[in-house]
TrEMBL record:
Cofactor(s) it depends on: [4Fe-4S] cluster
PANTHER family: ANAEROBIC SULFATASE-MATURATING ENZYME HOMOLOG ASLB-RELATED
UniProt record similarity statement: Belongs to the radical SAM superfamily. Anaerobic sulfatase-maturating enzyme family.
Keyword Iron-sulfur: yes
Keyword DNA-binding appears in the UniProt entry: no
Keywords (A to Z) from UniProt: 4Fe-4S, Iron, Iron-sulfur, Metal-binding, S-adenosyl-L-methionine
Name of the protein in question: SPASM domain-containing protein
Domain Radical SAM core: 19-252
Length: 372
């Protein structure tokens, strides 16, 4: 496949690149998704996107411009959706990132993995994360009928092709979201339902949520500190009542997580958890709305200095998946000018001393294994 990367009419690379550019870039390629997973803050029961009458996606020319502008620092990329494999030019995005030598990872619901397996192997993204939330019956209750079978077929094909072509990448992983519906079924998925030998990575993640009070407090911060009078519709997709989590058995969750972690250690499979260190106490604090009290919760967020996210509408922010406070739009301005512009500065200044009520639902709010 030919790679057309240069936009001949575009202006030269921003001179600001020499001073600052994001090292980690999330691209929400599109809003659309072919599933309606119950817990999803975008398309789930309370999802923020359900009411939208018009769905958008990033213009491929703009995506290529961003990739080209930031290429001197070779940022790490995460592609996002909706469902990233539904983006019509997903092959061109992966080819462009390969061409410029950037590493890229993306999550997928797995339903289109079989169809795109050849293209993915050809473009060698670094990691593909397939979302799976339990054995077939539980996964399909949370994610939709027939999804488990399609996703497992996708993993098998991707793995087989990678072996056949003798390639190292993509590494294949699964993301399991621990929710009131799935929490009893972690071991069953990995030890009975899936061929775990096909996996290089396993990530176990607690359902992200904010309480109705967090949402009101966030709206007030946006109004009082950023002059933004908004109903914070995107963050509203994360709102859950604490009573939904009351039945969850913290001891059982901690036990099952430990058993998966031990398996991974023994077999050399990369293990990730959000939040890290899922002890009984962690589970209790997290699902009672007290995740800010966790030992691994950060006191200060470094992401506004490190990473940026561009959503399908072209809006830019650093708060992953929370698109209410935006700092510019790539359909109107070059990314690096936004990154180095006054709104980003104001946002960073605020976060030097404060956090947001939404931080407790953000996977970036927890220290990684290497951070103390
Ligand atoms: C929003 S989806 C987008 C990518 C793709 N559609 C997928 O499902 O993998 C990204 C990841 O967020 C997870 N997710 C959805 N709702 C969540 C929630 N409330 N808390 C934590 N993770 C969630 C999904 O399971 C998936 O692993
Ligand atoms: S597939 Fe992904 S984006 Fe779509 S509803 Fe499920 S979690 Fe949300
Ligand atoms: S939501 Fe909070 S933790 Fe997440 S990136 Fe934004 S400031 Fe950082």
């Amino acid at each position: 496949m030919s790679v057309q990367l240069r936009n001949e009419t575009a202006s030269p690379i921003s001179p600001l690149l020499s001073t600052s550019a994001p090292r980690w870039i999330w691209l929400q390629l599109l809003e659309a998704c072919n599933l309606r997973c119950k817990m999803c803050y975008e398309w789930g029961d309370n999802g923020a996107y359900k009411e939208r009458t018009m769905l958008t996606q990033l213009d491929i020319k703009v995506v290529k411009q961003i990739i080209e502008d930031c290429s001197p620092v070779k940022p790490y990329y995460d592609l996002f959706g909706g469902e990233p494999l539904m983006y019509p030019q997903i092959d061109e995005v992966l080819a462009a990132l390969k061409y410029y030598g950037s590493q890229v990872a993306f999550p997928t619901n797995g339903t289109l993995l079989e169809k795109h397996a050849e293209m993915i192997i050809e473009n060698e993204p670094h990691r593909v994360w397939v979302s799976m939330d339990g054995p077939e019956e539980i996964n399909d209750q949370q994610r939709g009928k027939g999804v488990f079978k399609r996703a497992t077929r996708g993993i098998e094909k991707l793995h087989a092709l990678r072996e056949e072509k003798g390639k190292e990448f993509p590494k294949i992983g699964t993301i399991f979201i621990i929710t009131p519906l799935t929490y009893m079924h972690v071991e069953e998925l990995f030890f009975k339902s899936l061929d775990i030998t096909k996996l290089d990575h396993i990530s176990l993640e607690f359902q992200s949520f904010i309480t109705p009070e967090d949402h009101v407090n966030y709206r007030n911060i946006l109004k009082n500190n950023f002059d933004l009078d908004t109903n914070a519709a995107v963050s509203k997709g994360f709102v859950r009542e604490l009573s939904e989590f009351i039945e969850m058995n913290a001891r059982e969750i901690a036990r099952q997580v430990r058993s998966i972690e031990e398996y991974c250690k023994e077999k050399g499979v990369y293990f990730n958890a959000y939040p890290q260190n899922m002890t009984e106490e962690t589970v209790e604090l997290y699902f009672s709305g007290n995740s800010h009290k966790l030992a691994h919760a950060k006191k200060r967020c470094e992401f506004p200095w490190l990473s940026t996210e561009i959503n399908a509408r072209g809006d830019v922010t650093s708060c992953h998946a929370f698109y209410d406070l935006t700092l510019g739009n790539v359909n109107e301005q070059r990314l690096l000018d936004i990154w180095n512009g006054p709104k980003y500065k104001q946002y960073r200044n605020y976060l030097k001393k404060n956090s947001f009520p939404i931080c407790q639902a953000c996977c970036l709010n927890f220290k990684t294994k290497t951070e103390k």
